[in-house]
Specification:
By secondary structure, the chain is mostly helical. The chain has one domain. 71% of the residues lie in helices and 2% in strands. The protein contains six helices and two strands; from the N terminus they run αααααββα. Helix 2 runs antiparallel to helix 6. The longest helix is centred in the first third of the chain and has 73 residues. It is rod-shaped and about 110 Å long. It starts with a helix and ends in a 6-residue tail after the last helix.
Length: 251
């Protein structure tokens, strides 16, 4: 009986080595699970990062196309406003009424870029910017966003200035002298000025005020165009950087 009791005392599972071994195995299992979870999460975040960059590239390609078009369009509008101001300040302005009508309409065209915000809104609003681990890309994205913010501010001023100039133009020009080839489709309609067009008001003071309003708007428009050009450069640089850093060279 004493021999049997002695063997039970030494039975496996009752020594400190056994308890240490069980603790170590439990710790190892938890630690490995922790590493596996971290690794899985890192893979998911890495995949999400690449998806965001792929989406960002598509947005940038759309933006650069819009920017290129609106920069060219803005320069054309700016040129027409300059001609309008020059004509308004001419003493013989009453002899060029039809041309004045044409330039007035061109001066009222809206120059505006609607940026693609599909990706940027997700990065900003959901806190996903932390997924972008490449500092150079992060800095370039923020630089691009800063130019967009400046454009929003300038655009607001441009709309206000255009609205004030438009209020004066309504006191000078009859809409009945404009002929639209297709009123059902304004975007594709051709507009001409009918012969014999006359001004509602020939008051030199009103013409001078209109010229001043257009001059103020021209300054803002040219500033807007310069910033659009900066945005276009930032967008092109960011697109190239993403392609390089994330190995999207063939896209």
């Amino acid at each position: 009986m004493e021999t049997h009791a002695h063997e039970l005392h030494k039975a496996p599972g009752h020594g400190w080595k056994h308890y240490f071994f069980e603790f170590f195995m439990l710790f190892l299992a938890v630690f490995c699970g922790f590493l596996a979870e971290n690794f899985r999460e890192e893979l998911v975040q890495h995949r999400q990062e690449r998806e965001f960059m792929q989406s960002m590239m598509e947005d940038l390609q759309t933006d650069t196309s819009k920017l290129t078009h609106q920069i060219a369009f803005g320069k054309m509008v700016s040129s027409n406003i300059e001609n309008l101001i020059s004509l308004l300040n001419d003493e013989k302005v009453k002899d060029s009424t039809e041309k004045l009508y044409f330039l007035n309409r061109m001066a009222g065209r809206i120059v505006r870029v609607e940026f693609e915000d599909r990706t940027s809104s997700q990065l900003k609003n959901a806190g996903n910017m932390r997924l972008i681990r490449n500092k150079r890309v992060v800095d370039s994205i923020r630089n691009y966003w800063s130019t967009m913010k400046i454009e929003d501010d300038i655009e607001e001023r441009l709309q206000t200035s255009g609205s004030k100039a438009g209020d004066i133009s309504m006191k000078l020009f009859y809409t009945k002298y404009y002929h639209y080839t297709n009123r059902q489709d304004p975007l594709n309609s051709q507009v001409t000025v009918l012969p014999g067009a006359k001004l509602i008001n020939n008051d030199p003071a009103l013409l001078a005020e209109y010229a001043n309003r257009r001059q103020s708007g021209l300054f803002i428009l040219n500033n807007y165009i310069v910033n659009l050009q900066k945005s276009n450069i930032e967008a092109a640089n960011l697109l190239q950087l993403i392609r390089k850093e994330y190995h999207f060279e063939n896209q």
